[in-house]
Amino acid sequence: LTVLVAIALVEGNLSRQVRESLPEEAPSFYFIDIQPDEVAAFDALVEGFPGVTDLQQVPMLRGRIVAVNGVPPSELKIPGDVQWVFRGDRGLTWMRQPRAVDKITAGSWWPPDYSGPPLVSLHDEVGNALGIGPGDKLTINILGRNVEVTIANLRAVDWANLSINFVMIFSPGLLEQAPQTHIATVKVDPANADALEIAVTDRFTNVSSIRVKEALEQVGRLIGQIAIAVRAIAAVALVAGVLVLAGAVEHQ
Question: Which residues have CB under 8 Å from 227's CB, separation 6+?
């Protein structure tokens, strides 16, 4: 009974978070694979479209952490909750100034006109888990080249709002000249969502759109299916327990 009640509570909280809380904060669309020479035209189209209330757009490429203070990940004791950061490539971006959502928890941001050796802003959960912070070094493999960067600050990341977030944000300079694409999130009135998607994908045939609402609905359905399966297993265990207890009582 305790297991069944716990499952019901967890499933209910997760479903409510996905179906009620997240959609209020989540963007309507992700647009990916925007080429650098399309950025200005993309921004102009989206910002001038009826019903659009928010546009966020940043450059992005990918890289992999191959060492922390010169030690490869295979030789580190990495806590389970941050091991995902070291599994393959991670999205990277660069910024001159922090955004409103970027809350610095240790160290400081670089000046807007910074042009020195590469610095990085690291997700504070990763830094705290590994016991590293401002002044420590990371080696990042970017496009096949290993680059050593210095951690300038640790930054809190709220993944739940589904806005554009990164484990690592670089200072300007190193990544600016590297081959990259751009990624954007857009909030738009539901009545204009279909028209915006058609307008963007017709104008920029290489750009892909991801409907966040549909993705959240799929996650909600998946959570419900998992909960049903676990409830069924727990119910079988409960019935088996009752039978065992009944048999024990009968023998007494």
Answer: 7, 8, 10, 11
Say if residues 45 and 200 touch (Cβ distance below 8 Å): yes
Per-residue pLDDT of the chain in tens (252 residues, 90 and over written 9): 676 677 667 766 766 665 655 556 678 899 999 999 999 999 999 999 999 999 999 999 999 999 999 999 999 999 998 999 999 899 999 999 998 889 999 999 999 999 899 999 999 999 999 999 999 999 999 999 999 999 999 999 988 777 889 999 999 988 888 889 999 999 999 899 999 999 999 999 999 998 887 766 676 667 667 767 766 777 777 777 777 777 777 666
What is the rounded distance in angstroms from the CA atom of residue 35 to the CA atom of residue 39? 7
Buried b (16+ CB within 10 A) or exposed e, 85-94: bbeeebebbb
Residue whose C-alpha is closest to residue 46's, from 218, 240, 249, 198: 198
Which of helix, strand or coil describes residue 17?
helix
Q: What is the pTM of this model?
A: 0.77
Nearest in space to 167 (alpha carbons), one of 179, 145, 181, 149: 149
